Amino acid sequence: MDKNVRKLRSKDINPCIEESDGSQKCLDANNYDKNMCSAYFLRYKNCRKYWHNLMVNRRRDGVKPDMPTAEERQEILAAIGGKPY
């Protein structure tokens, strides 16, 4: 597998793998009719926006690493009562 593909599939780097997979499965199931998958696309977009904002705030506050690890993200989501997107 290509290095960049592995990087995108890493749960520590990409917090929205689940949403990305959901979008792809929807497209596959609906013969690539994008209109049928708009809810999946919106969920993915909101996921990316949420984690990007969190990463920017951590970077501004000097917290390393910029993107929380998969375990830290699970704790963050549990603290706020689930996915906010």
UniProtKB/TrEMBL annotation:
Cell compartment(s), UniProt: Mitochondrion intermembrane space
A biological-process GO annotation: mitochondrial respiratory chain complex assembly
Assigned GO CC terms: mitochondrial intermembrane space
Keyword tags: Disulfide bond, Mitochondrion
TM stretches of this protein: none
InterPro entries, sorted: COX23 (IPR051040), COX6B-like (IPR048280), Cys_alpha_HP_mot_SF (IPR009069)
Family: Belongs to the CHCHD7 family.
Protein's name according to its UniProt entry: Coiled-coil-helix-coiled-coil-helix domain-containing protein 7
Lineage of producing organism: Eukaryota, Metazoa, Chordata, Craniata, Vertebrata
The encoding gene: CHCHD7
